[in-house]
Amino acid sequence: MNAQQLSNRLMRVAHHVPAGAVVADIGSDHAYLPCYLVLNGIAEKAIAGEVVQGPYDSARNQVIQEQLTGQIEVRLASGLGAVQPQDGVTVVTIAGMGGPLIRTILEQGKERLAGVERLVLQPNVHARSIREWAVENGWSIVNEEILKENEKIYEILILEQTDKTKELSPEELLMGPVLMKEFSAVFQEKWTKECAQWKKIISSMESAEETPELAEKKQELSGKVKLVEEVLKNENS
What we know:
45% of the residues lie in helices and 22% in strands. The protein contains 9 helices and 7 strands, in the order αβαβαββαβαββαααα. The chain has helices at 8-15, 32-39, 53-65, 99-108, 128-136, 170-175, 177-182, 185-205, 212-236; strands spanning 21-26, 43-50, 72-76, 91-97, 118-123, 139-149, 152-161. Strands 3-2-1-4-5-7-6 form a 7-stranded mixed sheet, with helices on both faces. Helix 4 (99-108) packs parallel to helix 5 (128-136). The termini are far apart. This is tRNA (Adenine-N(1))-methyltransferase. GO terms for molecular function: tRNA (adenine(22)-N1)-methyltransferase activity. InterPro entries: SAM-dependent_MTases_sf, TrmK. One of its GO terms (biological process) is methylation.
């Protein structure tokens, strides 16, 4: 992978960035995504934010190598601390982190999202955390994708600010309102595997000494299994 040829996962993230955007890519690593967006005329300019010195240096070197220093600024900052009001950022991308970490970044940097029109978020796990944050903070899920790459399954969530936040059901929060409607083969594979894993954990709990914490965890997992199995059964019937 490089700035000219992204992985399929990042290509799908790039696909949801509108033409003419000013992009802030948080946790940019090698800055491949912002470089690709600018090189292909999708983004006018971009900010690549990194909190760790090593990836920050890699991103800077990449931007210099692509001769994009006039259009991409690499900043050493935590989360949305990389974004300044004068930047005029319209799209924020965050890819390759866990859902809870992405949620924390959005929550801690909420005031930096003024003027941002779209969030393109690719959590590696626990996308539910992001959907819960969206509902709580006036962002609508306008699109979702699910894809498989190198035997791993990834979700992409596209959020836009709205005056009227749509409430999501427990199954929509967990599995994704758009993904549930599309009901793709990858979606079915993901949730069939998740259910099997949860059942294995529940089974292993049976032999452990019962504690209030264990009982609560067992109840939580059993609830998830029931929820997911209902969705899979209804769609298949």
